[in-house]
Each structure stands twice: as structure tokens, then as C-alpha cells.
Amino acid sequence: xxxxxxxxxxxxxxxxxxxxxxxxxxxxxxxxxxxxxxxxxxxxxxxxxxxxxxxxxxxxxxxxxxxxxxxxxxxxxxxxxxxxxxxxxxxxxxxxxxxxxxxxxxxxxxxxxxxx
Length: 116
Known about the structure:
mainly alpha; Cytochrome Bc1 Complex, Chain D, domain 2; 6 helices; 0% strand; globular
């Protein structure tokens, strides 16, 4: 009787771990991949050229999440950001905010002038 009970516990544990593993073993680059569309305007890793639009590297995660949510809901008007934010789930926006919050802010880069 004890062997059967132990076997049942092992089987249930294997089944449960099979469901839990995908959440635990997520792609370590998933947040970076989601944030890739932001690089065009906000610069590589959130450090924009000339700070226009603002650099977002190293900013507070909660602040970034709130801004993204405000863009998504239309509470914060924008030219492009409201359209960008609407394309993501709340979980994806939180992952993007976490990615940029973890990046190291760089000194402001000034755009080079053509022909100089």
C-alpha cells in the first residue's frame, strides 16, 4: 500500500512539474525581444541620442509600467506611444519596463552632424 501511495505522489509531482517548468524556464531574452521595437526611438538599451525622446534606461520600473499603462489607456497623450503600448498585454508591458529599468543609463549622446 505504501509503495502505491509513493508512486502516486511521484507521478503527480512529475505532472505538476511539467506544467510549472514552462513558467520557470522562460526565455531569458524574452523581455529584451519585446523591447526591441523601442530601440528605434529610445536607443539601444533605452539610451537615446540627444535624449530625444527621453532615455529610459535605468528608470524606476514602477514609473515605466505606469507610463506604459497610461499610454495604453490614452490617459497620457502621445504621437506614437499610445499606438505602441496598445500592442502589448499588461504582462508584456511589465516585462519591457523591467528590461529598461535594469539597463545602465549612459551619458547623453549628442547626434553627430553630417559632413563634420
